[in-house]
Amino acid sequence: MTDSEAQAQAQALIAQLARRCELVDTRFEDSTVRWHRIGHGAPLVLLHGGNGSWLHWVRNIEALAQWHELWLPDLPGCGESDELPPPHTLERLVGALQQAIADLIGADREISLAAFSFGSVLAANLAATRGRVSRLALLGATGHGFARRPLVLKNWRAMPPGPAQTGAHRHNLSHLMLHDPAAIDALALAIHRRTSEQTRLRSRPLSLTDATRRALDRLRIPVLLAWGEHDPTAPAPDVQQIFAQGHPQRRLMRFEGAGHWLQYERAAPINSLLIDWFSP
Q1: Which residues on adjacent β-strands are paired with residue 27?
Q2: Are 121 and 142 a contacting pair, CB within 8 Å?
Q3: CB 237: neighbour CB atoms within 10 A?
Q4: Which of 35, 139, 209, 238 is the most exposed place for a label (fewest CB within 10 A)?
Q5: In 45-118, which ranges are continuous DSSP H helix?
Q6: How many independent structural domains does the chain possess?
Q7: Which residue range is the domain that position 44 belongs to?
Q8: What is the pLDDT of residues 210-246, one digit of tens each?
Q9: What is the pLDDT of residues 88-137, one digit of tens each?
Q10: What is the CATH number for 235?
């Protein structure tokens, strides 16, 4: 299969999945937040990472939708959602999600939450603010406040469209998102390119704080924390133990040979893990 054929196949897969979802828009401060809904069962909200969209969960949606009613937003300033007027504070981003969940699912209805990367900052604080969250799962969580490995990413915006720009996206995927070169396939490239071009929210400043860790210390619910062995955004393995020490309701997992985008690179075991974690 040629590169162009692989890209066409990836775009067709994305379009097919989008058609299976119901699109729902909510409003917050005169801005529109777009949601995808699919599946039946207890409500599970999936939050994507920075520089991303609902497509960060592309390899998990069909499996999880067999067990849950999934609600997947494009966070404000990402994907097809509007950017909130500045300032883009943690409180306003969480407020947009909290209002949308109240409108779509119900203010008094219990939900479960799973989040990836920067989404963990919002999910942990949403759970601490809203309450009525039964369980929480954080994959590749940022907002821990500990040292991270240095990253050298390429500025794809400074390059003309074509092979050079594609090479920059591939480089950035390999250095930030995925460890196994085989995981950087046409679908991963298509999603990364699309979400990079759509993103207007500057999530990194919030990701570098300790906002997730502080919110978790306010929670008294079961929390799953999972990082890949080669995740450059993760704290050191010994520091990861701090998240679980003294918290019997927290479960810490480490995936050998995996990078940051765990639910893509390790889709099958992550799907099984999340189905089990959120089972009644």
Answers
A1: 32
A2: yes
A3: 11
A4: 238
A5: 61-65, 90-101
A6: 1
A7: 3-277
A8: 999 999 999 999 999 999 999 999 999 989 988 888 8
A9: 899 999 999 999 999 999 999 999 999 999 999 999 999 999 989 999 99
A10: 3.40.50.1820
Edge to edge, what strands does the sheet with 31-38 contain? Answer: 22-28, 31-38, 68-73, 42-47, 111-116, 133-139, 223-228, 250-255
What Rg do the C-alpha atoms of the chain give, in angstroms?
Answer: 18
Helix (H, G, I), strand (E, B) or coil at 263: helix
Which residues, at least 6 apart from 164, have a Cβ–Cβ distance to it below 8 Å?
A: none
Q: What is the residue type of 140?
A: G
Q: Which two tokens stand for residue 86?
A: 């500045």
Note if the bond before 232 is cis, omega within 30 degrees. no
Q: For residue 17, how far is the Cα from the chain centroid?
A: 17
Residue 276 CA to residue 280 CA, distance in Å, equals 9
Amino acid at 237: P
Write down how long the chain is: 280
